[in-house]
Design brief:
The protein is an alpha+beta fold. It has a single domain, classed as Nucleoside Triphosphate Pyrophosphohydrolase, CATH 3.90.79. Helices cover 27% and strands 40% of the residues. The protein is built from five helices and nine strands. Strands 3, 4, 5, 6, 7, 8 and 9 form a seven-stranded mixed sheet that branches. Strand 3 and strand 4 form a beta hairpin. The radius of gyration is 15 Å and the shape is globular. It starts with a strand and ends with a helix.
């Protein structure tokens, strides 16, 4: 089944097949969710069968809305599909844009709606192994150090978020503003 996502073609938002978007490096809509528990950030390790960046650590959820799907609805849907969590009280944080080579001749050029969820420590996570091979909670300061020490085990977008957009994403939660 082909998944059609919103991408800009000649400055017009158009439904384009997801793989084609990445092959052509088209600017497209995306969502990213950061789940926080106090000062800890939930990371997921992408399943090895993912067509790009398999086995790399990323934020809790990052994906693309389908054509005509609202960003918030997409975030809620994919949190459930990837991590088996039902979180509906997401806080919209910002819209960010980045471009990154993700290997295999593929490019992410995303306009990303970023959401945050603050959760209790007893959050039950049941990852879909087709999507997520592992997850872990990491202290925010430790995540910064780990990315600096071993950047190649993290997705390009998580490295970009932490280097260029940490204040916009985490500022209200971690006093970065």
């Amino acid at each position: 089944m082909k998944i059609m996502i919103p991408a800009w073609v000649d400055d017009v938002l158009t439904p384009v097949e997801k793989l084609e978007v990445h092959q052509r490096g088209l600017r497209h809509k995306a969502i990213s969710v950061f789940i926080l528990c106090g000062t800890q950030v939930l990371l997921q390790r992408r399943a090895l069968k993912k067509y790009h960046t398999p086995g790399l650590w990323a934020n809790a959820c990052c994906t693309h809305p389908t054509w005509e799907e609202a960003s918030g609805a997409c975030a809620i849907r994919r949190l459930d599909e990837e991590l088996g969590v039902k979180i509906t009280d997401l806080e919209y944080r910002d819209t960010l844009e980045y471009r990154a080579d993700v290997g295999g001749g593929l490019t992410e050029h995303e306009v990303v709606a970023v959401f945050i969820a603050q959760v209790a420590s007893d959050l039950q996570i049941t990852p879909n192994l087709d999507e997520v091979m592992n997850f872990q909670w990491v202290e925010y300061v430790d995540l910064q150090k780990r990315i600096a020490d071993t950047p190649d085990v993290f997705t390009p977008w998580l490295r970009i978020y932490m280097a260029d957009f940490a204040e916009a994403i985490f500022g209200a939660d971690f006093g970065l503003k």
